[in-house]
Amino acid sequence: MFYFNDIPCNSTRQPICEEFSDTEYEYATLPKHTNLHNKHVSDTSVECPIPYVPVGDTCLAILFYTATMNWPEALLACEAMAGHLAKINDPELLRAVYLYLHEHDISDGSFWIGGSDRDGEGAWVWLDGSSVLRGSPMWGFRDGLEQPFVNESTNCLGILSGGYHYFRDDDCEETTKYKPICEPQW
């Protein structure tokens, strides 16, 4: 079981990592759906390989403790955890991520997820090639206009704390705001 302690932000610490073989995975099992009042909503559960945790009906690693990074660096961070940037492909999962961020007091963070239109402006796809849902309730508004903007310099998908964790298109090289949300390779 993992426990995290609060330490001063100016402390210098390095992560402790352990590599697991395919047969040595440990699993964390938590209720599949939990609301803000920690009331169990479903009888089913999700088993996640460590360091991933159940969020909604999937397993995610929300790397709130890392430094901010650009989207390509976030891809590499997830790959180092035997995963990839998360695919948040339905409103219920987006809601579960939002609730998780608030329940764990990390809602002030902004996060990269696995969508982009780098291969064709306006053609938003997940890393697996499937289409990113468009419109409300997935995408947020900026300056009164619904995202995503048609803009050659904003080609990577994030969820921004200042935008209530709705989808936002941003510059893939943006390094001051985002940390990765990863999901395991299945």
TrEMBL record:
Source organism phylogeny: Eukaryota, Metazoa, Ecdysozoa, Arthropoda, Crustacea
Pfam families reported for this sequence: Lectin_C (PF00059)
SUPFAM superfamilies (alphabetical): C-type lectin-like
Protein name per UniProt: C-type lectin domain-containing protein
Record-annotated C-type lectin domain positions: 55-178
Classification via InterPro entries: C-type_lectin-like, C-type_lectin-like/link_sf, C-type_lectin/snaclec_domain, CTDL_fold
